[in-house]
Amino acid sequence: MTTPLRLGIAGLGTVGTGVVKIVRQKANLLAERAGRPVVITAVSARSRDKDRGVNIKDYAWEDDPVALAQRDDVDVFVELMGGSDGPAKAATKAAIAAGKDVVTANKALLAHHGQALAEAAEAAGKVIRFEAAVAGGIPVIKALTEGLAGNEITRVMGVMNGTCNYILTRMQSAGLPYAEVFEEANQLGYLEADPTLDVGGIDAGHKLSLLAAIAFGTQVDFDAVELEGIERITIDDIHQAADMGYRIKLLGVAQQTGRGLEQRMSPCLVPDTSPLGQLEGGTNMCVLEGDAVEQIVLRGPGAGEGPTASAVMGDVMDIARGFRLPTFGQPATSLAKAKSAHSVTPAPYYLRMALEDKPGALAKIATVLGESGVSIDRMRQYQHDGDTAPVLIVTHKVTRADLNQALEAMATLDVMRDPPVALRIETV
Amino acid sequence: MTTPLRLGIAGLGTVGTGVVKIVRQKANLLAERAGRPVVITAVSARSRDKDRGVNIKDYAWEDDPVALAQRDDVDVFVELMGGSDGPAKAATKAAIAAGKDVVTANKALLAHHGQALAEAAEAAGKVIRFEAAVAGGIPVIKALTEGLAGNEITRVMGVMNGTCNYILTRMQSAGLPYAEVFEEANQLGYLEADPTLDVGGIDAGHKLSLLAAIAFGTQVDFDAVELEGIERITIDDIHQAADMGYRIKLLGVAQQTGRGLEQRMSPCLVPDTSPLGQLEGGTNMCVLEGDAVEQIVLRGPGAGEGPTASAVMGDVMDIARGFRLPTFGQPATSLAKAKSAHSVTPAPYYLRMALEDKPGALAKIATVLGESGVSIDRMRQYQHDGDTAPVLIVTHKVTRADLNQALEAMATLDVMRDPPVALRIETV
């Protein structure tokens, strides 16, 4: 087949510009690999005249991404605008209705509307690909959907928000408090306009919900992701975890349990010698576990012009080569509605609390834990900070439900300042 | 499409048995994911009656793999016999001639005959897939050929022989000499019948030559791989490397240089904090570098029933889904014959030598190095071992050609016992 594959690109920010560069600069390489030319015919963005360092004058211009999505000279609508609703959603729907394939980097869109969009696309015989939406340049969707297609997936884990990992590793390496590193990250432009998307775990949660759907053949269910951000992690937590041989990571975990599908995105302790523990800075990592393959670990840049454009182009090249797969690896109509289970898999937990410096304070805590069936593996009391005693407890394995019961009981004790911080210690 | 995809499996050792188990136990999952059933119709192996823990009575039996490859009820010939020539080659050729697609785990076959087989397959409109031939369960061929298809690949590295990595890490962790750990590995059944395939770097070299062909769009050229085994690595090398913050790995590196394609499989020093440096035991790792994606690291089991069968099934599922790609990612006839360059990329080197304990011995070495243009970054002389002084030198960056000249000159010195061991320090 030598008919060119014609792209219409909506959104010319960092990623869109990166895609334009690759298509312009590597025309021969792409044609050789795909067996046909890959070209851009039309683009759309907020500003036509902004200097992006690439020439877009050769391409037709559309102010409206919906109009771009409907153009006759576009085969693949490449959606790089972002946002779960608004123009991205409207244009993606329009593209499918107009019989276009779709490549998108938009995790929010798919986390919220993935099932409906996939059903629409498949009814129209069109594909939606979204490698760039999860873990930047790492071809994790492909690994999971295709490379591991012979596996029953047992667990998927990931550090998939580079900003959070930057903040946590920078706190550790520089010994700086959360607020200061947060501000640093802000100055460096690492944070989304609404930083809660990053530090609240929402962005990473979107990604996890997409991986879970693919891994377990279930409908995307972002609302079922237990979300916890990194805002309450202190430099003391980081030091104390390190003392015990752990690192704190904003870790996503999805696994099938006897009681349903568990999806968690929360700060966890992982062994400092594990690949996850050793992940520094903005790098992302996905851990895929299957009954046949055991464990595969993928590591790479989670963001940036080149890596994200690389992922977009991987999808484009698949389409150019005629690889057509349902959005989530199997027909959308065959995806089960998962029963969601909230942290039913037991794990040891790290608990950090501040107790009033009164006789018997520690005993009260230990008693409440014991009464709730939570047994203590290790306990440390640190030097008083004024009239408060920082106390650290590592529990034996416990379910989150049992732990929550203990935490509630502890909150009623008069010796307890602030609610305790509880972080799961994940077996990786 | 609901026509079943029919497999004929030649070779029922560990991997073949693993594939049979997956196809039998996951019929529904595979059908859902592929959109059609995947079935086995016929098998072939050395012994029909051996107890393999799976029931093969449902399948037609062929004593001769060539006959299996030619059966009318086989769509995909799955070659899991091994060996670069003999029955594996004959049956693969027969399969292509009979219009079958081929899935193989046979690195030796493709390293030696990949170009001819690929040309034959493509002329017949058939595909050859070989994910299981490189790095076991890691979907690295797929990542490189498809996921990174928008990249100009700049370098590919890999630790791809689990046995060598087991030996090297076991030497380090247990403080045991090479010979002893080699024997251990032998007892554990980790070594090939001809152990040179493992410890001589040949098996890993086969894999590197396949990765290089895909990465750089060149014809497989195993003969151009500079091969060096791990047989001369001593426990002292391992300790001394560790002292300086390095680990020794049997590392494959392929990169395009201004003077041609460099392919090396040799023991190298890598930083102990890098993902490669931290790789323990039989686990494999591939590092893929591209101009857009920067660096992707893939880690996973390099061998074993489940992981290798997982890779085979990834290929089978691609074929079931109708994904058809030339063997090396672009048409075999378009693959360039690479000009091969031997270690032209300069690097620092670790040199270990034994000098006679005579006045001026060290000065002679330093002089020869200086005269050959090799400058010294660090030098250590260790406590005498009888009348021999172990000396360790780390050079500044030097090409292997310049270093070899220095090594030759050093070999003529009367103070030099045995030829020096020279290990490259690779930037990862």
Automatic annotation (TrEMBL), chains A, B:
InterPro entries: ACT-like_dom_sf, ACT_dom, Asp/hSer_DH_NAD-bd, HDH, HDH_cat, NAD(P)-bd_dom_sf. The keyword NADP applies. GO terms for biological process: methionine biosynthetic process; threonine biosynthetic process. Pathway: Amino-acid biosynthesis; L-methionine biosynthesis via de novo pathway; L-homoserine from L-aspartate: step 3/3; Amino-acid biosynthesis; L-threonine biosynthesis; L-threonine from L-aspartate: step 3/5. It is an enzyme of class 1 (oxidoreductase). NADPH binds at residue 107. Keywords: Amino-acid biosynthesis, Methionine biosynthesis, NADP, Oxidoreductase, Threonine biosynthesis. The active site is at residue 207. L-homoserine binds at residue 192. NCBIfam families: PRK06349.1 (NF004976). Belongs to the homoserine dehydrogenase family. This is Homoserine dehydrogenase. It comes from Roseovarius faecimaris.
